[in-house]
Amino acid sequence: GSLPFQVKQAELRFSNTCNLQCRMCSPMYSTKWETEMKKGGESWKWLNNKGYYTDMEKRVQENVSAEKMLEFIEKSAPHLEYLMITGGEPFIDTSHIDALKLLKPYAKNITLEYTTNLNTLTDRGHNVLDYWEDFRQIRLKVSIDGDPENYEYVRYGGKINSIVENAKQIYERYPITNKNPNDIYPDEKVVIQGTCTVSAYNIARLDKVAQFVTQIGALFHTSQVH
Q1: Nearest-CA neighbor of 15 among 40, 39, 32?
Q2: Which of 192, 194, 190 is nearest to 174 (CA)?
Q3: Can you name the residues that pair with 13 across neighbouring β-strands?
Q4: How confident is the prediction for the chain on average, in pLDDT?
Q5: Are strands 219-222 and 190-196 parallel, antiparallel or unpaired?
Q6: Average pLDDT in the 175-189 region?
C-alpha cells in the first residue's frame, strides 16, 4: 500500500545569491563572500586559518538546484499552508518570482515568510509587492544587525535608508491595522520583524538597534543565530 505525503510547511533556499557581504556571514549564504573565497587572497587565508571554510566551495556546489525546488513547489502548492524563503537575498534571486507565479492559484491558503535584508523590493523589473496581494499573510524577518551608526559597517554594501524607504513602501501598500497588537504575529497582511543576529558588533548597542526597528514600525526580534 501507500500513504499520501502532502507537504504543508516547507523552508527553501534557492541559492546563496546576495547583494551584501555582511561581516558575520560566509560563502554558504552570500555570493559576495563566495567570490572572495574563490580569489583565495590573504584576507581569505586569515579567515580560514582554522580550516572552517576549506570544504565550503564543495558544499555550495552541492546545494539542491533551484529547478528542483520549483518542481517541488509546483507539486506541493495545492497543499501548502506555510512557506519560508531564505537566501542569500530572496528578493534578488531569479527563482523567487517564478515561485510566486506557481503559488498564485493557491495563494489564499499560504503564509509566506522571508528572511531578507530589505535593501531592495525589485528583481528584473518585478516589484515583489505586486505578487503578495493574494497570499494569506506575508511575514518579513528583516536582518537589521546594527543601528543607524554602524549598520552599514556590519552589513557591508547595505544602506539603512533603503530599509526605511522600502518599509515605507510596504506600509503604504499594506497599511498597519493594529488588530491583535499583542499577538506574536499580529493580524496584518504584512508583518515586519527587525531580526538582529547578536554578535560582538552589536551586543552593546541592542537598545539602539531595537529603537531603530520600532521607529520604522517593525517588531524587534533577535535571531537564534549568535
Answers
A1: 32
A2: 190
A3: 86
A4: 89
A5: parallel
A6: 72
Helix (H, G, I), strand (E, B) or coil at 54: coil
Closest CA to 197 of 170, 172, 222: 222
Can you read off the three cell numbers belonging to residue 24? 558575520
Cβ proximity of 125 and 149 under 8 Å = no
Query: Do 89 and 16 form a contact (C-beta atoms < 8 A)?
Result: no
DSSP 9: E
Mapped onto helix, strand or coil, the DSSP state of residue 163 is helix
Q: Cβ atoms within 10 A of the Cβ of 100, count?
A: 21
Angle at 159 between CA 210 and CA 22, to 5 degrees: 80
pLDDT of residue 34 exceeding 80? yes
- Banded model confidence at residue 3, pLDDT cuts 50, 70, 90: confident
Extract the runs of DSSP E, i.e. beta strands, from 155-226: 190-196, 219-222
Cell digits for 222?
533577535
pLDDT tens, residue by residue, 102-153: 999 999 999 999 999 999 999 888 999 999 999 999 999 999 999 999 999 9
Residue 80 has pLDDT above 80, yes or no: yes
Q: CA 75, CA 71: separation in Å to the nearest integer? A: 6
